[in-house]
Amino acid sequence: MENPQAPHVLMLPFPAVGHIKPMLMLGKLLCQAGLSVTLLNTDQNHNNILNPIDQSSFYSRYPGFQFKSLAVGLPPEHLRTGPVVAELLYWITSACSTKFKEYLMVEENEKGQPEPVTCIIADGIMSFTIDIAEEFHIPVITFRTYNSTSTWVYFHLHQLLQNGEIPVQRDEDMDQQITSIPGLETILRRRDLPPFCKLDSTDHLLQFYMGQTSKMKRASALILNTFEELEGPIVSHLHSIFPTVYTIGPLHGLLQSHINHNAPPSDSSETSVRPQDRTCIRWLDSQPSKSVVYVSFGSVVVLTQDQLLEFWHGLVNSGSPFLWVIRPGLVLAENNVAETPSELTIATNERGCIVGWGPQEEVLAHRAVGGFLSHSGWNSTLESIWAGMPMICWPQIADQWINSRCVGEMWRTGLDMKDTCDRSTVEKMVRGLMEDKNEEIRKSTAIYSSMARNSVAKGGSSYHSMSKLIEDIKSIQ
Ligand code: UDX
Which UniProt keywords apply (predicted)? Predict the structure, then answer.
């Protein structure tokens, strides 16, 4: 450790890219502010995700960090390969819970308290930490890596069920407004809820999230990667659950503006947990300004072969050049190369670029990119807002459904394409976004981008909130 006297923050992310990345960024900011940080990952992520090419180069980007792992091993084969997300979540949280307790017992006993844990910052869906930390008298701050609106919705799952607003099972009910969530009465339709609200009341995923949110309420504070100017009214509602809510986003922007002025600003690509193919930047350099549509569905979403082809036809027919992230595993059953119609291959060679994983934040900031076709994961949405990049949202899981409604209806920074991806819709949406027909969206995106930048600048709301978080951790006895 660089500073043995510093408060010691133990961080526990949920083991997935979209959750680890914001935790790493937060940890980096805490380190810059002189705190000592230990990041606990599962052994699988520790070995595979964090160190795909060069372990030492990854770790060298985090001076002052300690990286440790929980030996939970691999989930059973059927959980890794099947569509059993709920069972996988139960397995991960249960395995981590046992190992986390063991970890704390060993740490507390072996160290004789030379560097006791001052507080734990745990992912919102690792809320078992709250029960365990209570035994050790360590406060837990919960870091929900969703936005405020999704977090607020998840806190109402019980109520939605009680009021009969979920499960939504009939198509004709999809466009009814949700009335039981204060602040969202005019925004949210049943269609905008996550898929697990559309199955049945005993659905395991629904039960999992209801259990997590009810436990999460006992955390001493809530951290969100969002900013006041974007979601202030919903953040105010969250104060009815948590006395303290730290809104410290966009974290990648805060890292660039660096809260500790003695520390050099960070390049946020440093927080990428996968190797990035940078050849696409050279390709972008050769494209006209604002001409390219960037396509990425994040780290979890999968497409069927049919969906892949519908997107592909839609993109080609739109006439726009496109940069597409097709990561390994994105497409179910990977025999797509042989089956790709030749007209798509020819068009892609002429005006497309495909990479396995790119430098997304840099891509979104590139002058050649004019729109982002996305799954509306929260990190991607926030990065798009920061870059002033209009979006087309095609949500598939969890919070993505709510995010896409926020983008399309609340902030009007893009188009919500939920529930469909047929080639003519894709073409129409891409043309609508790229051919500058959408003046309102472009203006709104520019305004929110500027607000995001102000929020992380000295004196801005997120800058202030981050300083407060650091002070509060330093003042824990
Ligand atoms: C998951 C869930 O899908 C999402 O709903 C939730 O909000 C967070 O956890 P993920 O699918 O990984 O997230 O999407 P997202 O939140 O958008 O995060 C993806 C991250 O990967 C972004 O920070 C993005 O910059 C990065 N990325 C993506 C790359 O660095 N390169 C790429 O090629 C694609």
Answer: Glycosyltransferase, Isoprene biosynthesis, Transferase
